[in-house]
Amino acid sequence: MKFFIDTANLDQIREAQDLGVLDGVTTNPSLMAKEGITGKDNIFKHYRKICDIVDGDVSAEVIATDYEGIIKEGEELAELHEQIIVKVPMIKDGIKAIKYFSDKGIKTNCTLVFSAGQALLAAKAGATYVSPFIGRLDDISTDGLNLISEIRLIYDNYEFETQILAASVRHTMHIIDCAKLGADVMTGPLSSIEGLLKHPLTDIGLAKFLEDYNKGN
């Protein structure tokens, strides 16, 4: 399973990268705004900074919602850096654009996916990644993990190469559950990744080892 961090915060990206397990980054307009990054030039510059930190894929989202606009923005984003993945919304013109990008060899991430049918369309269009938002489904009392399971079954049935990128991951157990279900990638906050480090028995055991060592040294 690949680990992506879902943020535009450079310090958090560096921290995840330094941990040695980071495979990529996902961003969106909300995350950019949260960091105070506004204006096309500043946003593009920020994407380049992210690419300089990480070795893997960096999802950069288009703002346009019409076919021509998505194509124009997507091509501009793809030219920024070889690591850029063009993030396209799950809408009719988005699917058309994903097919265009796929034919041109431009990698894409189909975002805001909430059903198996949407994920099937994204794979048919040639998306590199599909991003089902499990946390947002949980928020409305729907089982987000079941969606991961459905998409995994469909993709395996037809040997689609599109990777399942579990998005809107909220906590550590989301990561474990997605790994059990066979998600190819998860993207979440730094806290969810660092949560995998923690277990009370590890803390107790280490404290005991150090206590016993200090008794004789």
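^ that was protein a. below is b, sequence first then the tokens
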Amino acid sequence: MRWSSMPFPLRLHEHLPLRTARLVLVPLDLSHLDALAAMLADPIVMRHFPRVMTRVESEQWLRRTIDRYQQHGTGLLAVLRADDRGGRPEFLGDCGLQVRVFGGETHLELGYHFTRQAWGHGYATEAARACVTLGLRHGGMAEVVALIRPENGASQAVARRIGMRPGGAVLHAALVHDVWHTSAEPVAGDTLQ
């Protein structure tokens, strides 16, 4: 999809918060910095990314993400699990749709990071499915892509579970990434509430 054919801003944030059976996805803000910085500094979480981030780099990354909400009407979101006892929601990671340009075209890209404590509970799949459903339902887009490192089996499994399929590869951040695709067909297991 060429840049000129993407309707800017996408206005996906008008449909927030996103709620699923167990999660709430809200725009990231500076209140999330401590948890976000801890996650992005974890070498296990970041093993498929170029490197871990310092707190200063995490804050810069967060501020760029917040700026993208205004520019593009979309971006990565905080993924929270509500405390059943009414306490503060637990920060599990981030997930959302970003505007990404590669191969001379503009794409709506699914991206996510999750804390190690959140792994193995299906949260990434639940959040990713909600974000893709939002993008296909309200973004006027025919396709959502995900850039996934070839050795990142866990992210590939999430993509597969939400109906994405690999097709092609790109160089992003000086690393080869497989391009996973899903189209405007109904997303299996649509759980938006």
